[in-house]
Amino acid sequence: MNRRLFARAALITSALVSAAAPTLAQNYPTKPVTVIVPFAAGGGSDNIARLVVAKLGEHSGKTFIIDNRGGAGTNIGNELAARATPDGYTLLLGQITLSINPYLYSNLKYNPEKDFVPVAHIATAPTVLVVRASSPFKTVSDVVAAAKASPGKLNFGSGGAGTSVHLGGELFKLLTKTSMTHVPYKGSAPAVTDLIGGQIDMIFDTASSALPHIKGGRVRALAVTGSVRLQELPNVPTFAEEGLKDFDVPVWYGILAPAGTPAPVVQWLNSELNAVLKDSAVSERLVAIGAVPVGGTPAQMADFMKAQAERWAKVVKEGNVKLDY
């Protein structure tokens, strides 16, 4: 084929794709869409996913199904989503671990930047340090003093090795120059259960996961990340107020699709999700469970993820944290 014919064929192909795009978006989805949540059911990420996905189905009139695939610091669920057919019928509730894992695991089997396309930034949530209600620790200073008095004796749980709350604990150790033992779980829910039962001393958890237990009086919050106090926990100080102004671990949530998912499908999903986040029933519920609705374009989410990756690469390096799965 000569150059002129090749160019003409390319133009025709481009025109056909452009013409087909609206039809593709209008027809999608014609069957249930699976949203993989890389955490066990019942935790903060799962709660946010179920709230948004349920409203997405209601708003669009389509069927969306949650598939919990917890474990390995979200790598099991992330890898499953990365390998899925890029047709829009498998999505991922991406979390801050996508910004952390490339620097944490030497044998990662997926590349967050290359294997996924951002769809929509759903929400962000602060991290909270929580102890059981009967704990002798009343302040962050109490924890630091005990950790320094008996290095390695205290332990902290998290929703999984390599998760943001695990790295939050590692950052806490770096900033306070203390030594504590990390106890990973397959999700926040089982970690909170063991905290209440006295099997672990404390957890760094997302506010969205910990709030019900805090309000129920089963656990006590010592501090939250962020520049201001959480609306739902007005009596809990920020870490900055407790003397740790550099301790900030905002957890983000977003919907992603496997790389190669048709652009019209991504745009349709983005539009639907932004509409869902503007629904007062959803936004007010997100705030009530300790999260802040975000929204925006796929490009804005991509830029945000890049900035987060740069931040956590530094934390992992300085903390000398490496994991395998």
Structure characterization notes:
The protein is 46% helix and 19% strand. It has a six-stranded mixed sheet, sandwiched between helices. It has a five-stranded mixed sheet with strand order 7-6-8-5-9. With 325 residues, the protein is of the alpha/beta class. It folds into two domains: 164 residues, Bordetella uptake gene, domain 1 (D-Maltodextrin-Binding Protein, domain 2, 3-Layer(aba) Sandwich); 98 residues, Periplasmic binding protein-like II (D-Maltodextrin-Binding Protein, domain 2, 3-Layer(aba) Sandwich), CATH 3.40.190.
Helix content: 40-55%
Shape: globular
The main sheet comes to: 6 strands, mixed
Q: What is the fourth-level CATH superfamily of the largest domain? A: Bordetella uptake gene, domain 1
CATH architecture of the largest domain, by name, is: 3-Layer(aba) Sandwich
The number of helical segments is 12
Mean pLDDT: 89
Gyration radius (Cα, Å) is: 21 Å
Which structural class should the secondary elements be placed in? alpha/beta
Question: What's the order of the H and E elements?
Answer: HEHEHEHHEEHEHEHEHEEHHEH
- How far do the termini sit from each other? 50 Å
Count structural domains: 2
Strand order of the largest sheet: 2-1-3-10-4-11
Family: Belongs to the UPF0065 (bug) family.
Protein name: Bug family tripartite tricarboxylate transporter substrate binding protein
Keywords: Signal
Signal peptide: 1-25
